[in-house]
Amino acid sequence: MAEVDISLPAHPTGAAAKLAEAHSALRPLRLYGGWFCPFVQRSWIVLHEKRIPHQYVEINPYKKASDFLALNPRGLVPTLAVPVDPSGGGKEQKPLYESSIICEYLNEEYADEGKHGRNLFPESGYERARCRLWIDHISKNIIPGFYKWIQHTPEKEYSIEEARQEFFKNVLTLVKEMNADNEEQGGGSWFLGDRFSMVDVMLAPWAMRLFLIEHYKPGGLGMPAEGQGGEDEKLWGRWRRWFGATTERKSVKETWSEDEYYVRAYKRYAEDTTQSEVGQATRKGKKLP
Ligand SMILES: N[C@@H](CCC(=O)N[C@@H](CS)C(=O)NCC(=O)O)C(=O)O
Prior knowledge:
The protein has about 290 residues and is α+β, with helices and mostly antiparallel strands. The chain has two domains: about 1-115, Glutaredoxin (3-Layer(aba) Sandwich), CATH 3.40.30; about 125-285, Glutathione S-transferase Yfyf (Class Pi), Chain A, domain 2. Helices cover about 50% and strands about 5% of the residues. It has helices at about 1-5, 15-20, 40-50, 65-70, 100-110, 115, 125-150, 160-175, 200-210, 210-215, 235-250, 250-255, 260-265, 265-270, 275-285, and strands spanning about 30-35, 55-60, 80-85, 95. β1 (about 30-35), α3 (about 40-50) and β2 (about 55-60) form a beta-alpha-beta unit. The mean pLDDT is about 95. The protein binds glutathione. Glutathione binds near residues 37, 39, 61, 98 and 276. Keywords: Transferase.
């Protein structure tokens, strides 16, 4: 069974292939990633947003090669190799892993706004904490709910409608916290209104993968279309704005392979036969790795 997981196409395609190619030269800062992985896409988006010089190395995390495990004993992508002494050529490297930690590290370490663009966290201490609170909600509730839904099969003790409603509830809880989208109140589509932030980065990869639920699951995604959201129409409208802006964001589009390859890669999730750690944890009702 595990063999199928390691038979994934070995390289990104489409826009992501171009980006990977443009970052294939040896560099002291190196991202080990898998094109299909949403956790990797988070780190990739930050590297792109902040114009951080780096090398992208495509690996298959299911193969657990010994040099990969030496860097990251958890054996998961993204894994970042950070130069011990960047000024000294960066031959020696130390590892970092966990997508949210990698993203925070990159944002802090490449802080020169002239070179790397705006900080992905706001200046106000309270607002920074509020961002982290909602990142926590994304990681603890929205993302596990995505896998619970996509891995739903008729044998489960929960129904597909329950999985859908739980996912919707968690999305709308986040949407309620999004800054208002009307001009008087600051405008803009992002979590913080007109400012793109780490909250947007943390959720974007799963927003991009919602089409897989539409593709694979009975009844599809079922998110209300414009005007169909009933008493939650205002919130769904805000969600649609965020979603539209996210799917059009350059850093999101350019870290995206061709749709058909995700369809192939997620078949095992949709059939609930994946042996990935995330998939197994979901099956057992455990916390995600
Ligand atoms: N909590 C980790 C999760 C990373 C993760 O699960 N990556 C998957 C690919 S999407 C992986 O490397 N899977 C290898 C495996 O399951 O054996 C993070 O945020 O970086």
